Amino acid sequence: MRIVVCVLSNHPLARIRMPTADEVASFQQATAEKYPSLPDVWGTCDGVKLNFQSTGDVRIQRMFYNGWTHGHDVSNIFVFAMDGTIRICGLNAPGTMHDSSVSDYSFVYEKLKAVYQLTGGKVVVDSAFRAGLVDFLVKSAQTMPLGNGIAAVRARAATSIRQSAEWGMKQFQSSFPRIKDDITFETRGERRIILRLFVHLYNFRTNCVGCNQIRSTFMPQLEANWCNARSMFLDE
């Protein structure tokens, strides 16, 4: 697994890399075509907690215990671009950490801010992330607002866009059924390697196989291009 991670971490179709200015512009255009009220959004972000195997060490148990899920978890943050790939992530944090804290300590916020300062691109998140007004984040609404004002329309659009993060999480977890099992406790970094491997394989699968709901919804031309390339390859 370590060899595969080493190879895929530098592979152009599998690596985790921040989007370029041109890519952000294309993602924003894809968003604007479906949600004209949010033309500056290039991606969506959410957190996922994975079950962690219990240990005999009380100190470690307390570190990974999450009172909300009533279990021992590993917290992870994923930022999905509109092409369906994971562009920024924070992995392998103790289950006691809040999604916003994981984003802070894993420099997810810092990277999102860097993208915003370069391109003006924003990411849609839910209420679990940084409180208050932040230039590079767009908060989805916890309750669907009424009316047709600009704020209400933007809030409804943000809530709809954030649903794509759920699609990405579902695709990520369904692609690797074993990730639903308890992650084995270890002391040599195997858990971090496994999580990185899953992310690289997810990106590789999205770019090479397609069949990604985020991509087919926001950027269907990429799916079409892949299908045409595959047909030409099979014909040859």
Strand percentage, roughly?
15-25%
Through-space gap between termini: 33 Å
Global structural class: alpha/beta
Pick out the low-confidence regions.
Answer: 232-236
Mean pLDDT: 83
Number of DSSP-assigned strands: 6
Q: H/E order of the elements?
A: HHEHEEEHHEEHHHH
Tally of separate domains: 1
How is the secondary structure organized here?
Blueprint: H1 2-8, H2 21-34, E1 41-51, H3 58-64, E2 65-66, E3 71-81, E4 86-94, H4 99-105, H5 108-119, E5 122-125, E6 137-139, H6 150-175, H7 190-208, H8 213-218, H9 220-235
Parallel strand pairs: 1-5, 5-6
Antiparallel strand pairs: 1-3, 2-3, 3-4
Helix pairs in contact: 1-7
Overview of the molecule:
The chain is an alpha/beta fold and 236 residues long. It has one domain. 48% of the residues lie in helices and 17% in strands. Strands 1, 2, 3, 4, 5 and 6 form a 6-stranded mixed β-sheet that branches. The model is unreliable at 232-236 (pLDDT under 50).
